[in-house]
């Protein structure tokens, strides 16, 4: 069994690619919940939903989130009313949030609902939110404290960040099964997700970092930074603003305590030596999953 520490899009693509080299039932994604929000009274879990939709072949590839073939009648109506329409919930996507919110109100956990949604969509991988408790990533910025989606969507991740807090993480309990999965997995893969806002909120849940530290030799991370730039999103910008090296070396340094093998892109081959100085094994391949062949090659590399 393979565990994959997962954010949204980058992780979803890797999980999809792993289907070519591994039976999906042997894969457990341990998923970030720091982006989750409550809006219109509905609980929305972007990373869990992006992974579910992607593995169900339903993801909207142009947007990177939400469902393909979506319509926006509810949002357009809400916008006309002067309601909060900046965070776009498509008409079909809304059903997911309505379902989740109702189940949570009935006493189900986030993990139970994630499993129900995955099963409904025929997803064979196990999708586990890292915790059922409320954990919120917040940004301290030059204009004040912003919630995750305020920073990310409303302000297009364009405001300088001075620090990041993963609120609630220290008191959160790992969801049932998370620590067992991490103890028992043959390999723990850190997906090419944003280290600071997708992976760190997983590592900060009590117990997770300790297990990875103990199992460092079984942990392999894929760099989300290629040639000094993020594949998607603000990872490069945040690394810079928070004083890290804006390269795969900065990412490797961030993971050095918990990760024994680092997968970097061929473009960055000249940085391999700097990474091996962190007592990490280095593997070099094409890490951009721009076509199915590259994605498959990357999947093979993380299992090699
Ligand atoms: N991202 C946007 O840039 N704009 C949106 O309006 C938006 C809505 C949205 C609705 C549901 C969902 O699951 C995700 C959504 N996202 C949207 C993506 C999300 O904000 C981020 O990409 C992730 O949280 C970062 O991983």
Summarize the structure.
Helices cover about 40% and strands about 20% of the residues. The chain is of the alpha/beta class and about 300 residues long.
Structural write-up:
The protein has 304 residues and is of the alpha/beta class. It has a domain at 2-36 and 124-140 and 168-303: Rossmann fold. It contains 13 helices and 14 strands. The strands form four sheets. It has a seven-stranded parallel β-sheet, sandwiched between helices. It has a three-stranded antiparallel β-sheet with strand order 7-6-8. Strands 3-4 form a two-stranded antiparallel ribbon. Helix 1 (9-18) packs parallel to helix 2, helix 1 (9-18) crosses helix 13 (292-303) and helix 4 packs across helix 5 (110-120). The mean pLDDT is 97. The site of ligand FO1 has 16 residues, from helix 2 and helix 6.
Keywords for this structure?
304 residues; alpha/beta; Rossmann fold; 7-stranded parallel β-sheet; 3-stranded antiparallel β-sheet; 13 helices; 14 strands; 19% strand; globular; binds ligand FO1
């Amino acid at each position: 069994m393979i565990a994959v520490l997962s954010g949204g899009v980058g992780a979803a693509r890797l999980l999809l690619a792993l289907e070519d080299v591994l039976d999906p039932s042997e894969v457990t994604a341990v998923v970030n919940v720091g982006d989750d929000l409550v809006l219109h009274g509905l609980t929305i879990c972007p990373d869990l939903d992006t992974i579910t939709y992607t593995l169900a072949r339903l993801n909207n590839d142009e947007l990177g989130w939400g469902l393909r073939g979506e319509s926006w009648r509810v949002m357009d109506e809400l916008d006309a009313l002067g309601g909060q329409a900046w965070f776009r919930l498509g008409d079909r996507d809304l059903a997911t949030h309505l379902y989740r919110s109702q189940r949570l109100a009935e006493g189900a956990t986030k993990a139970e609902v994630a499993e129900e949604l995955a099963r409904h969509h025929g997803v064979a991988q196990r999708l586990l939110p890292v915790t059922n408790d409320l954990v919120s990533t917040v940004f301290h910025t030059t204009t004040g404290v912003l919630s995750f989606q305020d920073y990310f969507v409303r302000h297009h991740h364009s405001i300088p960040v001075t620090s990041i807090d993963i609120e609630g993480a220290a008191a959160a309990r790992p969801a049932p099964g998370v620590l067992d999965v991490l103890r028992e997995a043959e390999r723990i893969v850190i997906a090419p997700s944003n280290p600071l806002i997708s992976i760190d909120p997983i590592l900060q849940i009590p117990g997770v970092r300790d297990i990875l530290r103990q199992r460092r030799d079984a942990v392999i991370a894929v760099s989300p930074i290629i040639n000094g730039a993020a594949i998607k999103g603000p990872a490069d910008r945040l690394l810079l603003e928070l004083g890290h090296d804006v390269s795969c070396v900065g990412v490797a340094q961030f993971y050095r305590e918990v990760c024994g093998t680092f997968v970097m892109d061929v473009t960055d081959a000249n940085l391999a030596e700097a990474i091996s100085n962190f007592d990490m094994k280095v593997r070099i391949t094409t890490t951009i999953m721009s076509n199915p062949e590259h994605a498959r090659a990357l999947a093979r590399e993380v299992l090699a």
